[in-house]
TrEMBL record:
Highest taxon in the source lineage: Bacteria
GO cellular component, one term: plasma membrane
PANTHER family according to UniProt: ABC TRANSPORTER PERMEASE PROTEIN YPHD-RELATED-RELATED (PTHR32196), RIBOSE IMPORT PERMEASE PROTEIN RBSC (PTHR32196:SF72)
Protein name: Putative D-allose transport system permease protein AlsC
């Protein structure tokens, strides 16, 4: 009897079973309350809306697997968006050159975070909170608090479609598939799991832990730049606050999907389910006419519950 109970608890704790069930239940309930939810157009809208969050969640998952975190992603999205738009619409720079400069900025920001954390053995949480203010400040200086237009550049990435499928959705699927292969099948990804499990053991086994951490932060910065590119292309303009809240939503999605603050745990599929759950909740609340302030409360409750379940599983 005890063994059967343990197996049941294990199944409940398995995100690959639990999350799809919750997502299906939410869809059924929302569809029964408002039939508009059950339309192809609405589901495509959900995927388009969560594309940026999903791209960013893949980067956050990678860091969580390594036992780290980056809370500067939201501010970095704002900085990258402002730089891209300012270069194109104000400075008159060629859009493709502006895009390269934006990606260089994103990679450089990731490198800065990684260098500070590895060189001075600082906590990623504290360091990235600090650098988020730096990135936000630079974005405000560049934009002077005004809207920056992308000048109609790269419309296909943000609003284009291949058939019925929105381009942001295609980018999301490609990024998550690449992250799945990266974490599961490459030596680099497997060593990130080892580092997340026990960095001291990883170091003693010959893994250059500092170098791997630095490269992971650089890669995370690059993925953040891609998220900023998709977001800016979709909305056509930028403000320093473009990415506000995205970092916490990405963290929540990864944790909901089974990642852990302690490292060495989490899957791309689980993270995808976490992103989809947040997207469906947000979309359903909009369709049902729930006030935006209450939506924020619901999101906070979901995050707290996810952290509680993560802690219970770790114990």
């Amino acid at each position: 009897m005890k063994e059967k109970t343990l197996r049941t608890r294990a199944k409940i704790g398995n995100e690959m079973i639990f999350l799809p069930v919750v997502i299906i239940a939410l869809c059924v309930i929302s569809g029964l309350i408002n039939p508009r939810f059950f339309t192809v157009a609405n589901f495509l809208t959900i995927f388009q809306q969560v594309a940026v969050l999903g791209i960013l969640t893949s980067a956050m998952l990678m860091l969580l697997v390594m036992g780290a975190i980056d809370l500067s992603y939201g501010a970095l999205i704002g900085l990258c968006s402002v730089i891209l738009c300012n270069l194109i619409s104000v400075q008159g720079v060629n859009p493709w050159l502006a895009l390269l400069i934006m990606f260089a900025t994103a990679l450089g920001a990731g490198a800065l975070n990684g260098l500070i954390i590895t060189k001075f053995k600082c906590e990623p949480l504290i360091v990235t909170i600090g650098t988020s203010y730096i990135y936000l400040g630079f974005a405000q200086v560049i934009s002077q608090g005004t809207y920056q237009s992308i000048g109609g550049a790269f419309p296909f990435i943000g609003t284009g479609k291949i058939g019925l499928i929105p381009m942001p959705m295609i980018v999301l699927v490609i990024v998550m598939l690449l992250m799945f292969v990266f974490l599961r099948y490459t030596p680099f990804g497997r060593k990130l799991h080892i580092i997340g499990g026990n960095s001291e053991v990883a170091f003693l086994s010959g893994i250059p832990v500092k170098a791997y951490k630095l490269l992971a932060f650089v890669l995370g910065g690059g993925i953040c730049g891609l998220a900023a590119f998709v977001l800016t292309s979709r909305i056509g303009s930028a403000l320093p606050t473009n990415g506000s809240g995205y970092e916490l939503n990405a963290l929540a999605a990864a944790i909901i999907g089974g990642a852990s603050f302690s490292g060495a745990r989490g899957t791309v599929l689980g993270a995808f389910f976490g992103v989809l759950l947040l997207g469906i909740v947000n979309n359903a609340l909009n369709i049902l006419g729930v006030d935006a302030f209450y939506q924020t409360v619901v999101l906070g409750v979901i995050i707290v519950i996810a952290v509680i379940f993560s802690n219970i599983k770790s114990r």
